[in-house]
Specification:
Strand content: 25-35%
Number of domains: 2
Number of helices: 4
Structural class: alpha+beta
Number of strands: 12
Order of helices and strands: HEEEEEEHEEHEEHEE
Shape: elongated
Distance between the termini: 73 Å
């Protein structure tokens, strides 16, 4: 037997197998990264996070389609967070996707509560329309049930994506984090801008209707 030639053939086969394995691994990583990662408790600014929670409960990665959700804004440390509030129908950007990444149609309630912010690019942010608001430690409120916001008809697991918007003082187009923690400086602010949280992604489960026995 020609041992050197045999060894070369084995090494060639091994490289091909490794190449295929590596290619498969890369494809798998790319496919997984293209899908949304299930995540809750996301950053709005380094000083504040946004989360979806069980009603009067803790943050969760999955909700039933008819389950009431709470949303919470949590200020890091012992800071105060001064901002201005947009109307409730402008604060949230939310979408629901089925298992094939197709967006689910919103209900009338969903449409009415997901308007794009109607905020002029000027110093009129300080007008009476946008009321000053102070967050401290944690601020939690009841929100909606998934089936209030979306027309979910087919049983299965869906992915809900939610972002939260807040109006903060800006300096040279950048959120002024020193001002949002200082009430006196905040009161003197005249230029505000919208910042949007990273997306929350949680599962929504519509269970099959149980047939009576």
């Amino acid at each position: 037997m020609d041992y050197p030639a045999f060894g070369i053939r084995i090494m060639t086969i091994f490289r091909k197998i490794n190449g295929r394995l590596l290619f498969g691994l890369v494809c798998s990583v790319l496919m997984n990264s293209s899908a949304g990662q299930i995540t809750n408790d996301v950053t709005i600014t380094p000083l504040m996070t946004f989360s979806l929670r069980k009603h009067f409960g803790s943050a969760a990665s999955e909700f039933k389609a008819d389950e009431l959700m709470d949303y919470a804004l949590t200020v890091q440390g012992t800071n105060y967070f001064f901002c201005r509030l947009m109307s409730s129908d402008e604060r949230f950007d939310f979408h629901l996707f089925d298992s094939e990444s197709r967006e689910v149609k919103k209900t009338d309630t969903g449409m009415a509560n997901s308007h794009a912010p109607d905020v002029p690019i000027s110093d009129s942010y300080s007008s009476n329309r946008f009321k000053p608001h102070l967050y401290y430690l944690e601020d939690a409120h009841a929100w909606f049930r998934p089936n209030d916001l979306f027309s979910i008809k087919k049983p299965g697991i869906y992915e809900l994506e939610v972002r939260y918007r807040v109006l903060v003082p800006m300096t040279n187009g950048v959120p002024d984090l020193a001002t949002v923690t200082n009430g006196q400086n905040f009161a003197a602010s005249r230029v505000f801008g919208v910042i949007t949280s990273n997306p929350i992604r949680v599962k929504v489960n519509l269970e099959p209707t149980r047939q009576p026995k």
